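cron nightly-structures :: item 1 of 1
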Amino acid sequence: MIGVQPVLGVSPSDHYYFFVILSPVGAYYAAGFKPVNIMVEDHYVRAVPGGTGEAKTGGNYASSLKAGLEAKKKGFDQVLWLDGREQRYIEEVGAMNMFFVYGNRIVTSALNGSILSGVTRDSVLALGKKLGCTVEETKIDVNELMADIKAGKVTEAFGSGTAAVITPVGKLHYKGETVPLGDGGVGELTQKLYDTLTGIQTGALPDEFGWVTFVK
C-alpha cells in the first residue's frame, strides 16, 4: 500500500493504492530449506514498543540493514533482534518470527508492540496445537535461552515468515560464542511443520483451518 497524493510534505496521504501482487518465488535463503546461522544483535536496535515495529512497513527493514550486512560479513545469514529497551529479550529475526522447541513444547516471543504479528506465525501456532504440541507465547531471556541450548533442552529452532515459510536454524551466535541447535540439522518438528504448511498452501493436504480461498 503506497500513498499517491500529489503533494510534497511530511503527512499522511489522502489517497492510497493497495496492491495484491501474486508471483512464484524461490527459497528466501540461498541455501533453500537448510539450516541457517543466526547472529544475535546486541548493539543495534530495530524497534521499540510504541513505534512501527509491529507493522509490515518499509521503514522497519531500513533500520535492520546495517546490522544485517555486518552479520553477513561474519558468516551469518540473518540477525536476531533483542528488545529495544533492555536488549535482553528475544524479539524476531529481520525476515521471520522465531520459535524454539523444547521437546514437545514450542516457545515463541509474546507480541509486545515491536514484534510483527505474522500470518505464518499464527499458522505455526495453530499447526503446533494440531500436531499435539504445547504452544507458549512468552518473554524469552536471551541468556536463559543460550543456557538451555547448551544444556540440550532446546531440541530445535526455526523461523516463520511469508517468504521464509518455515526455515530451520542450525546455529545461534551471541557475544562471541556460537552454539548449535540440536544436531545442527533440520529438526523433526520443523520438517513436519514445513511439510504440513506447504502441503495446505499447495492443496496437497486438506485445509482443516479454512485458510485457503480459491479465486476464480
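cron nightly-structures :: done
The two ends are 24 Å apart (CA to CA).
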